[in-house]
Design brief:
By secondary structure, the chain is α/β, with parallel strands linked by helices. The chain has 14 helices and 7 strands. Helix 1 packs antiparallel against helix 8, helix 3 packs antiparallel against helix 6 and helix 7 packs across helix 8. It is elongated. It holds the Pfam family MerR_1.
Amino acid sequence: MGQFSISDLENISGIKAHTIRMWEQRYGILTPERTPTNIRSYRDDDLRRLLNVATLCGQGHRISKIARLSEQELASAVISCSTDIHDYAQQVNSLLAAMLDLDEPRLYRLLTDAVQQLGFESAIMQVVYPFLQRVGILWLTGSVHPAQEHLVTNILRQKMLAATDALPPASPAGARRWVLFLPEGELHELALLFMNYALRARAHHVLYLGQNLPAEELLSVCRTYHPHAVCTVLTAMPERDQLQSFVDDLAQRCPDAALVLYGPLVQAQPSLVLPPRAVRPYLMTDFLALVEQLGPQAE
């Protein structure tokens, strides 16, 4: 069971702490425990209720009426409420509540609706990425269980594979060539899958090698495929003390390719010395801007 401070709830839900206090005091929306020093401490049930309340408030429902709803009535109202495609915060909160409840049908429907209404790439950038950032906060508080994380990851993976499969199957002659891979032991694939989609949607040619690729394979791949760029996402691997040697080795194995290094491990090491042709985009928007700047055609 998670334990949240009021600032945790603010960061996760997007509802200001003073509003949470007011809802708690006037309407009894939440029932926090108190530490010996009288500090509020909230549970998983409080977070789920707050996310649902925030969703209904975002739809224009009055807090005084929401406060009188039972848990079942609250959940039913959230499911049946209309969705504003431009209210991204409300969509993120709905996804979080569905994830915490392990409500697979609702998660799938919410993601499907977002994709249909916004388009795949906009849905990922405007809804899914903020949602995953909130999930990261929940990880830090110990409030996301492996089953919840696996549920979300597998649904998103299905969506990304389906969207990529729906793209035109072939790139034009002379298209810029990319190799996408994750190193040995690295299994966090969602960012790489989205990069694969974004590149193919922009008429680049992609050799997608996926998870857990031994580094020695890249030498023959680069010799055979002659990529313009080699891209990887580093979330958990390699070990931090091996990151510099991994990057140096990658540059040696693919000396003629640009290196695109993305992910929290790369960003957490400002002292990392990048090879001359390497870049490390900080955000996915930076990666997309890099791709647009390069253009699909090789020089």
